[in-house]
Amino acid sequence: MVSASVRGEYMAKTDTRELHIRQIAQEVISEVAPEEKAAFPVVADQFFRSGEKALSGRGRRHGAPISWGLGEAVALLTPVVLLVLSQAVEEITGEAVRAPIRPLRRVLRRRMGREDDRPRLELTDEQVAHIGRMAEQVLLDREYEQATAENVAAVLVRRLRQDSE
Fold it and tell me: From which domain of life does this come (predicted)?
């Protein structure tokens, strides 16, 4: 049986991770797909409720862009960006748990003394590059155009590098 304090700690970490992912994804989407800004909260809520199952997209071709019943077939970037960031955070935090030299608190934290309150992901250059490649590949696998995949990856990489400054 899991104690209430352990369960509470897990939920707090999960909530913090989700908040980080949401805020970074929202910044990326604001730049690469501003038409999705209004729907972002609803799509993000659906994503976090359903997880990757939401991306499996019953009734759509494997790999086809995600469109979550918005009336017309609209390929949304929001769930793909959320997926990439979720997978990246999972990889990084799993790595941090196994590597005592880089404790989890260094991976996901807010830096004090910053002029804004945006969540910060502390990443190495290699991790940022990996996330960029991962984003591009996930988009290509879901049949987005090469230019779209490259643009999303570039904006995501630029946003993540801002956290290292």
Answer: Bacteria
